[in-house]
Design brief:
alpha+beta; five-stranded mixed sheet; 3 helices
Length: 115
């Protein structure tokens, strides 16, 4: 038996509001199917000295049958264009894909707490 899912548009909006409530910022980089699109979250982390590092999280199945946020890709600070190219490839492969960008303190912990 599968657990009912929130429509992706509702979940994307909620993620942005949660980030804003935590003192961060969020925006939609790509809109997909409002009901059943795949959701990717890019977390931006300020590394200081003007350096920003991006990490991409995707909700994937776990061995116990649940789904959880998993680090799918980390940006190489020496090759930031490769990360952008990866996002572009994913978007071109899936027209239903949503990409949400969040700038929030302790971004990885923020994602892990979402379940």
């Amino acid at each position: 038996m599968t657990t009912p899912r929130l429509p992706t548009a509702v979940e994307a909006s909620a993620l942005i509001r949660l980030a804003e409530t935590a003192g961060g910022f969020g925006m939609v980089l790509s809109k997909g199917d409002p009901d059943s699109g795949t959701l990717l979250i890019v977390i931006l982390d300020n590394q200081g000295f003007g350096q920003t590092c991006a990490r991409l999280f995707e909700r994937l199945p776990r061995p116990d049958g649940t789904r959880g946020w998993t680090l799918a890709k980390a940006q190489d600070p020496e090759n930031k264009m490769e990360f952008e190219a990866y996002l572009a490839r994913r978007k071109s492969q899936d027209r239903d894909l949503w990409i949400i960008e969040l700038t929030v303190a302790e971004g990885e912990q923020f994602i892990r707490n979402l379940g």
